[in-house]
Task: structure prediction
Amino acid sequence: MPMGIRSTSILGVIAFLMGISINMYPLVTTAVSETFGPTKTSSVMGLLNTFAQLSGATALLVSGYLGIALNSSPGNALEEYRGIWLVGMVGCLITGTSGVVMSFLSRGLRELRRFESA
Result:
């Protein structure tokens, strides 16, 4: 198993959490629509999709490199996927954590503005 994971249930939990993180992307469209209105949503989403495609291509580049660089034992076909798992898990953790942090920061700024206006 990748990165020393020996339990199938732990692998299932990791895959479940990665699936949740990845499938939250449609919420971005809703947030953009509510923020910028229907007239600018398509252009803003086009810009966001450009960055999404660029980051996806970069993730494939990095995972391919790590897949080859972390292949420690020749002949073991599953070992070459360790880099892909590593990039996937780290990428989902970073984006999920940054989303939570930005949410807390924006909530704190709203409460601070509400406190200052009172």
